[in-house]
Amino acid sequence: MEQAAYDVVIVGGGAAGLSAALVLGRARRRVAVVDSGEPRNAPAAHMQGFLSRDGMSPAALLEVGRAEVAGYGVHLVEGRVEQVERDGSGFAVRLVGGPALEARRVLVATGLRDELPDLPGLRERWGKDLLHCPYCHGHEVADRPLGVLGTGPGSVHHALLLRQWSDDVVFFPHTLEVSESDRARILARGVRIVDGPVKRLVVEDDRLRGVELADGRVVEREAVFAFPRMVPRDGMLEGLGCARNEDGWPVTDATGRTSVPGLWAVGNAADPRAQVITAAGQGSAAAIALNHDLLEEEVERAVSAVG
Fold first, then answer.
1. 126: which DSSP letter?
2. Considering 5, 128, 149, 207, which has the largest number of Cβ atoms within 10 A of its Cβ?
3. Residues spanned by the domain of 204
C-alpha cells in the first residue's frame, strides 16, 4: 500500500469518533468516518453532564457533529464494518456489502452493547425509566421511588450511590447473592431490601408503575436502575491479535493506542465507564496522537528518500 486512500478510517460516528474526525480534519488529514447509525444512547431523550450541551438530545449532538466534520472535508460513510485487516503497512477496512477502504491508520470508536437480564419489560423501558447511570439520569428522577435490580456485583454500589438522589430506594437482589456485610451496608444507608426473584416490570399507559416479583408482590417504583453486562462492539478486530485485559476489553495507552501498530480504540469500545463527554475527550486525544504517529512515518520516509 504505497498511498492509502485515507490517512485514518474511523469506525464509529459517535462522540468519540466525530471528535477525532474534527481534530484530524482540521489537521488536513484524509479521514473517513464509517457509522451504522446505531448509537448506544439512542433510547435516551437527553444527555447530561456535557458542559454547554447539558440536556441536548444525543441525536442533535451527532447531527451537529457530522455537519462540523464535513465542513473540514471528512468523508462520512453510512455502513457497517465487517472486518479490519492488515494490508501491507496499513489496513483494509471491509464494509458489509460494500468496498474495502484503505487506511494508513484505524481508530475504533464503535462503543459497546448493553446485555440486559432476560425479563419482560426491560428492553422496552431501557433508556426511559429503566436506567443504568446515576450520573446520567439520577437528577432527572430525584426524590422519586427508585429501584435497583441486582444484576451483578456493581448493583450493590448502585443501591448505595442512588440514596444520594432519593430517600425512597429499594434494592431487589433478584438472583444475586448478597453478602451479610453488603446487606448491613445497604440497610445502614437507608435502602430497603426486597428479596425474591423478579418476574417483570409493571408498565401501564407507557409508564413504569412497579416491580413484580415471582410470588405476585408488586413494589411500586417510578424508575429502576439496572447495571447491564457491557460488551465492546469490536468483532471486526478479530484476527488482528489486539491484546485484551482479563475482562475482554482492548488494552490501550492514555491516547487509545492498542498493542497493534497503527490501531487505536477509544470511547466505550475500550472504556466501559466513559460518558459522552469523556468519550469526546478521548477521541480528541487519540486524534492528536494519530497525527503525530503519521508525522513520524512521513518524516522517516522523507529522510530515507533524501539519503
1. B
2. 149
3. 117-226
